[in-house]
Design brief:
Blueprint: H1 3-13, E1 24-27, H2 51-67, E2 71-74, E3 91-94, E4 97-100, H3 109-121, E5 125-128, E6 139-142, E7 145-150, H4 156-166, E8 170-174, E9 187-191, E10 194-197, H5 204-213, E11 218-219, H6 222-225, E12 233-234, E13 238-242, H7 246-254, E14 258-262, H8 265-268, E15 279-282
Parallel strand pairs: 1-2, 3-15, 4-5, 7-8, 10-11, 13-14
Antiparallel strand pairs: 1-15, 3-4, 6-7, 9-10, 12-13
């Protein structure tokens, strides 16, 4: 092996230097959380959720963000909306513009009203799409573009509406496995040019698009994907993720990130975890 080859090999093995950026998050406490209906494969109405434990686990996530220095604002929970804890689904907020969610299932429709009102009250210029969009469940900002999922919840036609409202390019990605019904269950944005994802959750065309855009992406194993390990939140250095995704944590560490595992097993019963509980306000 030549000296140049050795140097290249050593560079590839050295984790990239990462820098955190303070973030602005919006959350809703799981005061009324329950599994009262089944609208995704994770939900089983015969297995009740422990509401008190869900609150304690959510509080630990909230405190994790606060301890990292991030701003966390709260939206008041509304009785009769057991899934409102999954704040990410409430919309997409970028540079003062807010796309309010339009939910696919009637059980969640009034969440859009609550989150839309919060956005208006906080000075954001709100817009509503004609077609179904489930907020940051399917619309993930990376750098200057939006990665947008479709196939189960968000309507592909809403992607064009979001692009027009925000003035940002939107990359459409088809999901094909119902266990990964939102993009944020199958893909995590780690910094402005790095993602982690689970390839089998995507169509062949979507996988090819991701490989083209992110050749250095972290590909997560099935064991970690099946505990919603990719439903994670990153500030560019610290990656808060479901604690059970231990293999993903090792991959993150190897790539120079600092993984922080949290236990949200009660909220997983509703089909969500860290990212689902976290609506990011993008500058």
């Amino acid at each position: 092996m030549t000296i140049s080859h050795i140097a290249a090999s050593e560079a590839a093995a050295t984790p990239r230097s990462r820098s955190p950026r303070l973030r602005h998050y919006v959350m809703t406490a799981p005061t009324h959380f329950a599994v009262e209906y089944a609208i995704n494969p994770w939900m089983d109405t015969s297995t009740p959720a422990d509401a008190d434990l869900a609150v304690r686990q959510w509080q630990a996530l909230h405190q994790t963000y606060v301890s990292l220095g991030h701003t966390v604002e709260l939206v008041d929970p509304v009785a009769g909306l057991p899934d409102m804890v999954y704040a990410a689904n409430g919309g997409l907020i970028v540079n003062g513009a807010a796309v309010v969610a339009r939910f696919a299932y009637p059980q969640r429709a009034d969440e859009a009203v609550a989150y839309g009102q919060w956005m208006t009250d906080h000075g954001f210029e709100t817009a509503v799409t004609e077609h179904t969009n489930e907020g940051q469940g399917d619309l993930l900002v990376i750098g200057s573009m939006v990665l947008a999922g479709h196939g189960f919840r968000t309507d592909r036609r809403a992607h064009d509406e979001v692009a027009a409202i925000l003035g940002m390019p939107v990359v459409s990605l088809e999901l094909i496995d119902p266990r990964f019904y939102h993009l944020d269950t199958a893909l995590a944005v780690l910094d402005d040019d790095t993602i982690a994802y689970y390839p089998p959750a995507f169509s062949d065309e979507a996988r090819a698009r991701l490989q083209d855009l992110f050749p250095d992406a972290i590909e997560v194993a099935t064991a970690d994907a099946y505990v919603l390990g990719l439903n994670a939140v990153s500030d560019g250095l610290h990656v808060v993720h479901p604690a059970a995704a231990t293999g993903f944590a090792k991959q993150l560490d190897d790539a120079g990130f600092e993984p922080i595992g949290v236990d949200l097993t009660e909220l997983l019963k509703g089909g969500g975890s860290v990212k689902c509980c976290t609506l990011e306000v993008y500058p």
